[in-house]
Amino acid sequence: MNLKHIYFLLSGILFAGAFQVTDQNKVSQSRTDYLIRIDGTVSDREEFLYILNKNRQRAEGPLSKSQFEENFELFVNYKLKVKYAMDLGLDKSKEFRDEFDTFKADIIKPYLLENQLEEGEMQKVYERMHEMVKASHILLQFPPNASKEDSLAVFRMAHKIKAEAENGADFGQLAQEYSEDPSAESNKGSLGYFTALQMVLPFEEAAFGLSTGEISDPVLSDFGYHVIRLEDRKKNPGQIRVSHLLIRTHAEQPESESMAEKKIVELYQTLQADPEQWSELVTSYSEDQGSKADQGLIPWFGVGSIVPEFEKAAFSLEKAGDFTPPVKTEYGFHIIRLEGRRPVPSFEEVKPVIQSRIIRGSKSNMLRDKVLALQKDKLQVKENESLLAGLNKLFNTFQGKPVRELLNELSEAAWNSDQLIHSDWKTAGLKNFISFMESAFPDKERPLNDTFEAMYNPYLQDLLATWEEEYLYAHNADYRQLINEYKNGMLLFELMNQEVWQKAVEDSAGQQDYFRQNSHDYIWEERVPALILKAQPGKDLSGVADWLSGRTYEPEMASTLKEKFLQDDPLLFTFEQKDVEIHKNEWLASLDLDQSFHKTEVGGETTLVLIGELIPSTPKKFEETRGKLIQDYQQYLEKKLLSRLNEKYTIQINEDEKEKIYQSLEK
Q1: In principle, which of 196, 207, 397, 613 could form an S-S bond with 128, CB 3.0–4.6 Å?
Q2: Does the 131-235 domain belong in CATH 3.10.50.40?
Q3: CA–CA distance from 30 to each of 20, 42, 49, 356, 626 (Å)?
């Protein structure tokens, strides 16, 4: 976020109230209880109180009448600037619109149904992460290029298998007989324990929704239909970190297993006698090249993410430093040592992973459908079913023909057709859908291969997303004011930069003229030239003090000091030599200025000061005050701008409404 975006968010004295944006619903233009009207542009109590309350969070005590009037005046001035910025069209540039749209996309997220629904789904996944389930399944896959009839046949078969299992058939034997999961022959369909995010989401949701011993209805995933039986469920123990020592075996060399087993047993016995040899033994003997350089350490893992034999042995260890007897896996023989445990990560830690899985998985389509249903309900959307049926038929008629012909046919029908989609406060006709199609088909001569559903669904999603945003702006005061606060802040930044800040920096003639007219404000008070030395911690400045104490201040003294005292010890002291205004430096003002040399000790820090003769008060030169002058010139330009705007616009204040607001604040 750059300066322009935080300009009003950080300001404690200026206001960022709402203005009437041209691309949102105008929610307060015609209200009779307006607070301010500037040439017809209305501001009401909502926007004034929104900003006033934000600023009052940093204040203590009740708001006095004078404070209220001061804040109200600032609000009026701010509204004048915003009105002027809008009249200048500062919000019309592509750069402004792009930048604001980017911020608006971030601001709106927490308010959208999609975000609320997605957040709820992520919380459900996270809750499942605190539990583990053990399940078996039978997988039935679809044949290549499956038709609807093929899919229905697979579905019916899955139901038949479920019925057999519920009638007492052994689930493991059914898995060996029917499952198309390649591992079913050896594991009888058992998947062992797993937690959230370790299976495809439809499978995961179904498994976690079962009671122990229960068998699911057929569950559709990208792999096919699953029939799932829940075997057990228990608390997720979190994650562990282990190190291990591996002696490999090789399937093509049967004799390697007995040799590896003999070697691992000897290593285990050595460890039992002296556990402190772990690091040395891993470095010398482990055949896992990926971990031996790090003393056998492997990354943190949880249940269901590593080979079962290794995992079971690792999770059986109780405290850091414990190690297992030799464990056989498909890779060879391991000795495993526990290094640490940690609980399930916080929601914020795993949220990006969960969100990624939901967005890229089949869950995203389910969420999109749910969002659409919620939007229709919230916005009271009704679709013209007869017109939709006619459009579907028309799309079928024009399949394979140039898109141009379909668009021509639709355009002729659009003038006499009913509304396509409508709600209590918004409508969209056929012409709106045609515009969407025209943007979707830049090449009007290409043949139509898209179904009506494939074109209508994204159109409806875009339309209802726009309607939801407009509905939020019209009905949600917090969102409305937050949007306006950002947009107003950006507008004001552009205006002030153009009319005040940058102008004050670049207008050298104006600076000179302002300086001449206000030279009495730029005066040097009485000053003394001073050489100030400060000792570094532990350094002795007695020799420097002796040298300075008998001398008179000279402008060239700094270079002499460097040559005499800092050649051998550059860190002996730090110093500065400058003219100091006496009354703006409390420490210097407390010294006896008739005495040239001073030595002070404050908090163990030695300071030496040598001062010259008093310099009387004199006017400053332009170059000596340019920084302060530019700040003053900016304030001057801002006052001129406000004066000009007060003359340019007619300002009406509803005094009755203003008094009601103050009375409500008093209460």
Answers
A1: 196
A2: yes
A3: 11, 8, 19, 45, 48
Q: What is the pLDDT at residue 58?
A: 54
Taking residue 389's Cβ as centre, other Cβ atoms within 10 Å add up to 11
Q: What is the DSSP string of 449-483?
A: ---HHHHHHHHHHHHHHHHHHHHHHHH-HHHHHHH
Q: State the SS3 of 547-562.
A: HHHCCCCCCCHHHHHH
* DSSP collapsed to 3 states, 530-541: EEEEEECCCCCC
CA torsion 628→632→638→640, rounded to 10°?
A: -150
- State phi, psi for 234 to the nearest 5 degrees: -155, 170
581 φψ region: left (φ > 0), alpha (ψ -120 to 50), beta (else): beta
Alpha carbon 118 to its chain's center: 15
Element (H, E) at 627: helix 626-648
Q: Which residue has the tokens 């730029």?
A: 522
**CA distance linking residue 509 with residue 619, whole number of Å:** 20
581-588: long-range contacts, CB 8 A cutoff, minimum separation 24:
581/524, 581/525, 581/526, 581/527, 582/525, 582/526, 582/527, 582/528, 583/525, 583/526, 584/525, 588/528, 588/530
Enter the tokens of residue 51: 């900003």
Q: Which amino acid is at 264?
A: I
Q: Who contacts 177 (Cβ-Cβ below 8 Å, separation ≥6)?
A: none
Q: Map 166-220 to HEC letters.
A: HCCCCHHHHHHHHCCCCCHHHHCCEEEEECCCCCCHHHHHHHHCCCCCCECCCEE
Contact 591, 598 (CB under 8 A): yes
- pTM here? 0.58
Domain boundaries, the chain: 131-235, 239-343, 523-619
Cα angle 375, 380, 386; round to 5? 100
CB 468 within 8 A of CB 24: no
Backbone angles phi, psi at 242, to 5 degrees: -130, 160
Residues 515 and 631: beta-carbon distance below 8 Å? no
Q: Which residue has the tokens 């046919």?
A: 409
Give the CATH number of domain 239-343; options: 3.10.50.40, 3.40.30.10, 1.10.10.10, 3.90.76.10.
3.10.50.40
Q: Flag residues of the chain having pLDDT under 70.
A: 1-32, 56-61, 359-364, 366, 414-417, 602-603
One-letter amino acid of 218 = P
User: For residue 238, what are the contacts with CB-CB under 8 A and spacing of at least 6?
Assistant: 302, 341, 342, 343, 344
CB 297 within 8 A of CB 243: yes
CB-based contacts of 666, cutoff 8 Å, min separation 6: 62
Cβ-based neighbour number of residue 281 at 10 Å: 17
Work out the end-to-end distance of the chain between its first and last CA atoms, rounded to an integer number of angstroms.
Answer: 38
pLDDT of 137 reads 97
Asked if 131-235 and 239-343 have one fold, the answer is yes
Q: Which helix (H) or strand (E) holds 86?
A: helix 65-87
**pLDDT tens for residues 299-347?**
999 888 888 899 999 999 999 999 999 999 999 999 999 999 999 989 9
- Per-residue pLDDT at 359: 65
